[in-house]
Amino acid sequence: MKELKAVLANWEAVIGLEVHTELTTLQTKMFCSCKIEYGAAPNTHVCPVCLGMPGALPQPNKAAIQSIVLAGLATNCQIQRRSMFYRKNYFYPDMSKNFQTTQGPVAFCMYGGIDLEVTGAAACERDQRQGTRPLASGDGYVTPIGIQRIHMEEDAGKMVHVGGESGRITGADYSLLDYNRCGTPLIELVTKPDLRTPEEARLFLQELRQIFLALRISDCSMEQGSLRCDGNISLRRRGSEQLGAKTELKNMNSFKNLHDGLAYEICRQAKVLESGERVLQETRHWEPSARRTVSMRIKETADDYRLFPEPDLAPYDLSDEFVASVRAMLPELPAARRTRYLSDYELPAADARLLAADNDLAAFFDSALLAASANTDGDLSASGLGGGKGGQAKSVRLVTLAKQLANLLLNDTQAYLNVHNFKLVDTSLTPEHLVQLAALVADGELSSKQGKEVFAQTIKEGTSPRDTVNHLGIKQLSDTDALQAVVNDVLARFPDKVQQYRAGKTGLLGFFVGQAMQATTGQANPQLLNEMFMQTLAE
Amino acid sequence: MYLSENEVRDIATYTRIRLNKDAVREMTVYLNEVLDGLKPITQYQLEGVEPTFHPIAGLVNVMRDDVIHPGFSQAEALANAPDEQEGQFRITPILGGEGV
Predict the structure, then answer these.
(1) Rounded to whole angstroms, how far apart are CA atoms A367 and A277?
(2) Looking at beta carbons, which residues of chain A come within 8 Å of B62?
(3) How far apart, in whole angstroms, are the C-alpha atoms of residue A258 and residue A104?
């Protein structure tokens, strides 16, 4: 089989995604008041409604409707005031009432989309002559990805197939059912077939996850199945407008699997088409361990689910007030946060992206800078911290501080959290302390190496960086009088090296600085030493 | 004729009703008679009229607050189960088995 890059030089992949998200942050299920809890003892959060008992009447969860409207507003969808629920009939034990309650032709949210930024090595996989514009940074492009609809539905129960071939349904001796998950509110987002590469699909799902996390409507755990993704994919010759036969790809339960599954399927379809055969319209299953997709079932016609209006649920006619009240709940979204970090703080693009993607880190970053502005001189408080309204003059100090702070959060803090498997709230670190440390490093009072030492103490013990500095006696030596003595001493010890330097071997500067650092047990300001050596040697 | 015998056979399959050839022929006649009864509707000017196919009239936006009310205990949930194992419903093979 050809490599993806070679295939994409001749073929264009047309990819659409279906993304299911469980609204795990809610207390109760979609149509009954049973608790939502992952990992509870089986069948302990069930009732007549979610067990599908005769005569049970469903009652929709208002918070779930608010959540889906929130998701729609955040992805630029039009909120459909009038819609209703339907019964999608199917016979399978994971839904004991024999139908899934879902939406019909009209979903709560329709016709939306987001702008997707694609950077990095995979940016060249797309034919960028159409539908994209280059990024200002020059390392990628932006392309709009349309969203057809987001509709409200419910999740099914969990099944375990016992006996036979390793947990497969075929040949199983019997199956076990736990209905705790049954009836969990689920939103299904369907994109337009606007994605062109596996990398775009991966980045889109990542962006969507960040948006939903910012909205706090789900924990979006692909591992635990609260965020799931299927892909529809077909190939056409580059430049062609006609759509080819598509396959549906399942079991892509991580970002890597989504990317690799699609990449494999693109190469497989290219091989089929190039050998003159036709792609069968079928559902295929990605097997990560074998790195291949296998056919699950051939699709002849669309499944007939006998979709009809759910007679037990009243239709919706959402009021302007309802939509406005949800709009008022919209937080700052990752894309806006990213832009703010770039324009207000001039953070490096990669740092801005990483910080904006993580709610906890971003909130910490914002409140740290807010703390700094609250207790410093006028030059900080005048700079529009945290508000993100823009337009205010930037202060040089703020930019320096923000950069240092981002560095501490993304490197030192993140590393510490990873090692200990902690969340930010599990540590004693406060925004006030971290920005204090950032200031100490930014002002040259501590070297970055000393900064790390103080950081370790701060995050572990919750002590203020200033106290730690005083207590441990670590302080960067920036006193020029004291340092000049050290400089003179080093030069006196190595007269031959001084001669070589003056004869043009300027690379020896590092050697001198190293000697001086050693003499001060690492406490001298290396930048300052650099300058002082150059000056002294030039005299 | 609104419905063919083939379509009636499909409907029977969806609804899990076993019909023999004669019954399909008979039901095709009946169903077409029912649809024929709706014919007068086509004589009305219906442009711009919203469909009223939802059975609940007058009620909209019925919703409840997101508050937990305990349902069944595990024992109650499984009380009528044909079989159980470790708190779960135990059911016969879904594919290829004998069925209940």
Answers:
(1) 60
(2) 59-60, 313-314
(3) 28
Is residue B92 a contact partner of residue A58, using CB atoms and an 8 Å limit?
A: no
**A388 and A298 assigned to the same domain:** no
Is residue A327 in a domain? no
Range of the domain at B28: 5-43
CA-based nearest residue to A201, from A263, A247, A130, A285: A263
Query: Cα–Cα distances in Å, from A383 out to A38, A155, A370, A405, B41?
Result: 44, 47, 10, 16, 69
List the single range of A355-364, A392-401, A521-530 with lowest mean pLDDT.
A392-401
In this predicted model, what pLDDT tens digit does every residue of A136-148 receive, in sequence order?
777 889 999 999 9
CATH number for the domain that contains residue A525: 1.10.10.410
The pLDDT score that the predictor gives to residue B68 is 97
- With respect to residue A325, please indicate whether it lies within any of the assigned structural domains: no
What pLDDT score does B97 carry?
Answer: 47
Beta bridge partners of A195: A15
Residue-level length of chain B: 100
For B35-52, what is each residue's pLDDT tens digit? Answer: 999 888 888 888 888 777
Tokens 């705790």 map to which residue? A180
Residue A287 shares a structural domain with residue A392? no
Asked if residue A102 and residue A191 are part of one domain, the reply reads yes
Contact A44 B74 (CB under 8 A): yes
Cβ of A59 and B60 within 8 Å?
Answer: no
Which pLDDT value is given to residue A386? 40
Among candidates B62, B87, B93 on the partner chain, residue whose Cβ is nearest the Cβ of A41: B87
- Domain range spanning residue A417? 334-472
Structure ipTM: 0.78
DSSP structural state of residue A28? B
Task: State whether A204 and A96 are in the same domain.
Answer: yes
pLDDT beyond 50 at B98: no
For residue B100, the tally of other CB atoms under 10 A from its CB is: 6
Do A177 and A297 fall within a single domain?
A: yes
